[in-house]
Write a structure and sequence with these properties.
mainly alpha, three-stranded mixed β-sheet, 21 helices, elongated, cytoplasm, zinc-finger, Regulatory protein NPR5, Znf_C2HC_NPR-type, zinc ion binding
Length: 470
């Protein structure tokens, strides 16, 4: 029975692929003709059944209109029968379909004909909103866009099974997607009242570590309030159940509010370049700079001097990952194409080879941006990029990666040589390596202090050499 159903599915799909064979209706989508069969569409979709039976509202032109003000917005489709064809168009009528892309419309028809469809774009195919040439498009922005558009079309055309399939696909995608894409899906699920998808996305956003101030830039206030409510419930659930009631805090909500107030004060201090106040908050109030993503915020919003002073406090991990993707401050500086931030982070031992959860390094980001700039002449989201800054960022990170690679190779060779000598105690090998690392740090420190006179090759030195390039 299963083989028989698969065979029937392929037969119907071939009927669609063969185009004009037995076709009795033609659609025009983005200037391209699509031939179909009214009996199949009417049997599989209530929308098309009403359309071909002439029960929909009539208007000239046989338009199928979909609101595309936002690519995820769902609206009622308006269909009509022309005065010349009261039954919804004959074999000679061409029905324009507006505000639905050709790709999405074909996916919709493919599901109607065969009962199956692949919502993942072909791997390694160049697509809008995806600058990675080798992307498999499993959870990138382009894949999210296609799934959201298909979901809107499925709901508009009344194909409930496809809508359910697309919703499940999105639930799987957002688990690995960037936080920006998760918030886009969150808004779409809220507008279309998709409760399961909303629940998945809201929990991911609540775990992202983004502050209410940052969330408010992307989400409505009421959505931010619900996410904060989820965070509060999560903090209550994480507390040990075996503690007696008398040992619990008097007001957990007030603790959460106090934590957020600390973060707000810390960020206001960074905005005003008052690093001393941040230092007092760390020492006196127990503020954790990594938990509050202080360094990430400073790289994105403050000056080089503020970032440098924050790093010199010694209370922040320069390689601290943040959010569901695990980006470090160096990833953010690379995305911003900001050579002064890249230089100061590398000066304080930022790892150029650190990877996000998706396996992307800061060097990968800069190489991808450079490739886009060279081949496309522009970078999405960075319309005013300066070529010299992009080149300088790439050189800084490449140089740091090369130096680190050489040091690791030398350390590995030293360890191998020591291990080959059977009379050497392994504890002595560890001691020697630790002394070598300390000596390297001392050399780096003295080099960075005398970079103007010694002609060193540290990140700041390299940055200063390129600072006055035309």
């Amino acid at each position: 029975m299963e083989e028989s159903l698969k065979s029937m599915s392929m037969d119907y799909l071939n009927l669609l692929i063969n185009g004009q064979a037995f076709s009795d209706v033609t659609f025009s989508v983005e200037g391209r003709l699509v031939h179909a069969h009214r009996c199949i569409l009417a049997a599989r979709s209530l929308f098309f059944r009403r359309f071909f039976c002439g029960s929909a509202d009539s208007s000239p032109g046989l338009h199928l209109l979909l609101d595309n003000h936002h690519h995820y917005r769902s609206s009622r489709a308006v269909s009509a029968a022309s005065p010349a064809s009261p039954r919804g168009g004959g074999s000679g009528a061409v029905i324009p379909v507006t505000s639905v892309s050709y790709e999405v419309f074909l996916l919709l028809l493919q599901f109607l004909y065969s009962g199956q469809v692949s919502l993942v774009p072909p791997k390694h195919e160049p697509r809008p909103n995806c600058g990675d040439r080798g992307c498999w498009h499993t959870h990138c922005s382009s894949a999210i866009d296609l799934a959201l558009d298909t979901l809107a079309a499925a709901r508009s055309f009344g194909v409930d099974q496809l809508a359910l399939l697309t919703q499940k696909q999105l639930e799987s995608m957002v688990e690995k997607a960037s936080i920006d894409d998760v918030m886009r899906v969150l808004l779409a699920s809220r507008k279309q009242e998709l409760h399961q998808l909303w629940s998945t996305c809201s929990h991911l956003v609540s775990k992202s570590g983004l502050t209410p101030e940052v969330l408010a830039k992307h989400l409505p206030i009421d959505v931010v309030a619900k996410i904060e409510e989820l965070r509060l419930k999560s903090s209550l659930a994480c507390r040990p159940a075996f503690l007696p009631h008398s040992h619990l805090p008097l007001n957990v909500a007030s603790e959460s509010d106090e934590h957020h107030n600390k973060i707000r004060r810390m960020r206001r201090a960074l905005d005003s370049s008052d690093v001393e106040l941040v230092k007092l908050m760390v020492m006196g109030e127990g503020l954790n700079l990594d938990d509050s993503l202080a360094l990430h915020y400073a790289v994105q919003n403050c000056t080089r001097e503020v970032v440098k002073a924050l790093l010199e406090l010694g209370a922040a991990d320069v390689n601290c990952p943040a959010g569901p993707t695990g980006k470090t401050p160096l990833h953010i500086a690379a995305e911003m194409v900001c050579p002064d931030m890249v230089a100061v982070l590398l000066d304080h031992h930022a790892d150029p080879n650190v990877r996000t959860i998706e396996g992307i390094t800061p060097l990968d980001i800069l190489r991808s941006l450079t490739s886009d700039f060279l081949f496309k002449g522009a970078i999405p989201g960075l319309t005013h990029i300066e070529p010299n800054k992009l080149r300088l960022c790439l050189e800084l990170v490449q140089s740091a990666a090369m130096v680190l690679s050489r040091e690791e190779a030398a350390a590995a060779a030293a360890a191998a040589a020591a291990n080959s000598n059977g009379n050497v105690d392994s504890r002595m090998v560890y001691l020697n390596l630790g002394m070598a690392a300390a000596a390297r740090l001392d050399c780096d420190s003295s080099s960075s202090r005398s970079q103007g006179s010694s002609g060193g090759i540290g990140p700041s030195s390299l940055y200063s050499q390129h600072d006055h390039f035309p």
